[in-house]
Design a protein that fits this description.
alpha+beta; 119 residues; Alpha-Beta Plaits; 40% helix
Length: 119
């Protein structure tokens, strides 16, 4: 009788583990939904470098996939007068601005997006 109870408990645990694994793969289980469709970039097209004369590079920690990079890029590009491009391989945001860049404010936007800028 004890053997049957142990077998039922083990079977329940196995079923639970399989269900959790399937959910993880269906809903995404990595850093920020790596199994979900790629987030769309909101960077405007047709920008001219001459309109954004100031440049700054900010190192960013915590990005692990293209969705992370797009999330940071979108957060920065949502600021008026900012044009950013994030390089995931270098963990860097190259930011062009119309006015003198406020590094502290840019770092705050990156942090709000969930990543760690190096000041």
């Amino acid at each position: 009788m004890t053997e049957i109870i142990i077998i039922v408990i083990l079977a329940g645990l196995i079923i639970f583990a399989v269900v959790q694994t399937v959910r993880k793969f269906q809903k995404g289980g990595g850093c920020c939904g790596e199994h979900q469709p790629t987030e769309k970039s909101n960077s405007a097209k047709g920008r001219r470098k001459a309109d954004y004369p100031h440049e700054i590079d900010i190192k960013i920690n915590g990005m692990t996939c293209s969705n992370c990079a797009t999330r940071v890029e979108n957060a920065l590009n949502s600021i008026d007068g900012v044009w950013a491009k994030v390089d995931l391989n270098r963990n860097t945001a190259h930011i062009r601005t119309k006015e003198q860049p406020d590094k502290k404010a840019l770092c705050a936007v990156i942090a709000k997006a969930g990543y760690i800028p190096e000041h």
